[in-house]
Each structure stands twice: as C-alpha cells, then as structure tokens.
Amino acid sequence: MDFIKFGLTGGLNDQQLRMIHEAVLKIMDEIGMECAHAKTVEAVTAVAGVRYENGRLKFSPDLVNATITQAREIGKKERPKLDKLRITAPWNCFNVVDMDTGEVRATTAADCVEMVKLVASYNEYGPPPVYPCDLDQRIQVLWIEKLGHELAPGFCGALVTHDAETLRWIGELYAVMGQPYSPWYQFVISPLRFDYVALDVFWLFKDDPHTQVRLSLCPIPVAGLTAPLSTTGALSQSIAESLGGLIVGQALGATSPDQLPEWRTDYGDMRDLTVGYSLPENVMVQVLLQQLSEYFCCIKRDCIYLNTNAKLADGFAAVDRMGYLLMLGLAGYRDFIMGAGQMSMDEIFSPAQFIIDMEIGRYVQKLLDGITWSGDPNSIVAAVAEGVAEGNFLANPATLETLPYLFDSLLFRRSNVGQWRAAGSPTLEQLAIAKAKEAIASYRYTPNLAKQRELDQVFAKACQALGVDPKTQPIPERLF
After folding, report:
1. What is the SS3 assignment for 289-355?
2. Which of 26, 198, 234, 443 could bond 117 through an S-S bridge, CB–CB 3.0 to 4.6 Å?
C-alpha cells in the first residue's frame, strides 16, 4: 500500500537570512551581553575576539562567524532523528485539575506520585509533571528527585535548586544509583544578559564528582516583553543570545565538543502581559526558527516545547493544541517536549488534557503518514463494479484491505447519537479522565530494594542536615 504525504512549505528567502545574519553580528559586536560575574568575565575575555566594556561582554564578527562555521560543521554530522511524533509530559506545574472534582488546586506530594505514574505509562522520560507544594520548601526538590528513582527513573534530574547544600544531597542520592546528577541551568536571560546566580552554581560545582551542573544554551526571548515585537528583531536577538551563550560555555568548559546553539522565540501578549503561546504568530515563528537552524547550523530542528494558554481541557485547548501540533508537524518537527497536559503556560497540569494530547498526537501522526493510494484503472473499475452489483461496499475486498489503515481513536469516537446515549453520554473529558485513572492504577515499577534502603538513609540524613523532620511532612507512605 502506497501513501501520499503532505508537508508545509514557505519561509525566509536568502536575502532575509543574510539580513538576520548581519543583524546578529552587529548585536553581538555593538551591544553585547551583560555579565556581572567577575570569574566568568576573566575566563571569557581570555578568548581572542571577546572584550569587556561597561559591564558587557562583546564578541567580534570574526569570532561569531567562526562559531557559526564550527556549528555548521557539527550540524552536518549524522545523528539519529525521530520518524514518528513523540510527545512528553510537562515541566513541573504548581497546580493540577483534580480528576474527581474538576477543581484547579495546588499540587501535593500525593499528586506527584499519581501524576508521575500517569505520564510514565506513556513516556519513557521527562520531568515530573507536578510539584510537591505541600512539603517544606527545603526538601521539595530533594524529595521529588528521590521519588523518581523509586517510581520512574526516567523522570529524574528535571528540577533545579540554587541551594548548594540541597544540590550536594541530591548528588548523594544519584551516587547511590551509580550516576551523576546533571541539572540544567538557564544562564542566558533575555534581553542579552547572563544570570550571575546560575554562574555561581556552575563554578561552585565545576569539579564536583556527583553533581555536574550544565548550562542551557536556549534563551527564551519573548517578543514585545523581553525582545523587540518585530519578527526580525526577536529572531535576531534569540540567535545572538544563544551564540553568546555557546561562546561563554565553551570558554568555561561547560559544553560538549558537539554542542550546538539552541534558540527559541515566543510572542508576548501585551494585552494580558503573558507569553502568547496561543497566538498564530507563535506557531509561525517556530517554523522560521527551524529554517534559521538550517542556515546557521546545517541541521533541521525537530524538537520543540509544547505550550498553551488554555486553562482547562476545553475548546480553547483543542484548537490550540491541534493548530500547534499539526502545523509544526507538517513543518518537520517530531519531538514535542515538556508540554502534554500542561495548561496556562506552565501553571496547571490537567490529567485529562494529557490523555487528549496523546490522542491528538496520534491524529497528527496519521496525517503525517499520509493517505492510502493504490490500484490501477482496471482494478479501480472492478472494485466499483463489485460494489454496484452488491449495492454497497461493506464487504468489498478493497474495503477490507483498506479499513485497517483508517485512523481508529479511542477518544474521538464517530458513533451516532443513539450509541453515544447508550454509553451514558460521556464527554471527551470524562473519557480522558477514565483512561488516566486506568493508567495510574495499572502502572508498576519494581525498584532495587537494597538501593531503596540506601536512598531512604541518604534522604533521612539530608532532612536532618536541612533542618526538616520528615515525620511532620505529608509524604505518601506507599507508592503502590
């Protein structure tokens, strides 16, 4: 069976790409990036082509172009790519839609257990989708990192803290499991500056055997708020910030030899003072960023965050998610990370929306796979003649051959009204919640009991050192 496939075309021409390139060189040479971290400034200004003026690191056009050339050579190397959509759970939300009441409320440690089970039933890795807001702040990150090792190891390492003692104790938890703790820190902040607090953490743990701090090269300028509202201005600033981060990261020894710059740009919505994830412009600018990645790095980006401004699993969320996933899927994106079930930017986690997002992903994947195309004039005429003679095509061989290729959704049913009423007239959200509860109830993971005891011992010592009595905390006693 052959398939006809579809894609998205359009974007920047050569002149527009060169204009962005020229603007990036000027931004880095004439404006530069603010850096108030003396130790970092000393290390970076030792690099030829970097100077420090009025509190800002500035980068010569020759150095920037050399960095771009290096990125292009790295980008040309073969690397594995996804051929199917992958959609993973969100960053750590502080609110959750209660599956029984529909209420949006603050998340708890008990929610962390349930929601990690849910997302781990569908994803192999990702951050825990919710945060233990009811625990003492001194042990929140420590406990949820321990939970990951106990419940779903692929969901560890996604939270960060700036407290050095807590970081060291988390490193001890990871040492029990025989692996390093490698938290990411967003050290490039728009507009055009470096986070001296994140740099402090990096230098403090630079040679630590258990905690290997990594510096993210993906700034997130927001057009109209922390970057120019113009498409050209926002894109140019984003690329300049990431290239500056790469040059600094290389000078500090914080990047791997094959590290590529990363960029992301979102639109702000000045009317509500939010990030306008749900704006159509926000979808279009991601397509342009993909083309700029090909220009500056010789690699077609296929990984992107999945966000929405919708608050609940409603029509707003449906329009938003489908528009985002479908258009960017057609553009070539395949890895939609840290967003399934995430609502209101990153404030709310909806278990129902998580299930719906997984199903939207299946729907979009079907569109990307294409529509069936088979037969020749003679076989087509024969099939039509058989159906005409029978009076319908229900048992036609062509029907039986093609039926398995039609999309079959467990949520988006096409039943008639009578069938729907007979099933109790369920809403899509109710069906999704039922599937979420089923996934949570059936999830199982068996940890190494010896390692479990060691994790418990490290956690108890850490709580004592941090001044928290775990017996006073609402920590779930049983995970299953």
Report:
1. HHHHHHHHHCCCCCEEECCCCCCCCCHHHHHHHHHHHHHHHHHCCCEEECCCCEECCCCEECHHHHH
2. 443
> What is the tens place of the pLDDT at every residue in 95-121?
999 999 999 999 999 999 999 999 999
Residue 213 inside a domain? The answer is: no
Task: Answer whether 185's CB lies under 8 Å from 193's CB.
Answer: no
Cis check for the bond before 191: say yes or no (omega within 30 of 0): yes
Q: For residue 372, what are the CA distances in angstroms to 236, 401, 403, 405, 462?
A: 42, 11, 10, 8, 59
pLDDT per residue over 81-98, tens digit each? 898 999 998 888 999 999
**Residue 468 placed within a domain:** no
Task: Specify the number of domains making up the chain.
Answer: 1
Q: Does residue 437 lie within any of the structural domains?
A: no
* SS3 labels along 370-388: CEEECCCHHHHHHHHHHHH
Contact 250, 50 (CB under 8 A): no
Residue 394: give the domain boundaries. 374-405
Whether residue 141 is contained in a domain is answered as: no
C-beta separation of 96 from 367 below 8 A: no
Amino acid at 469: D
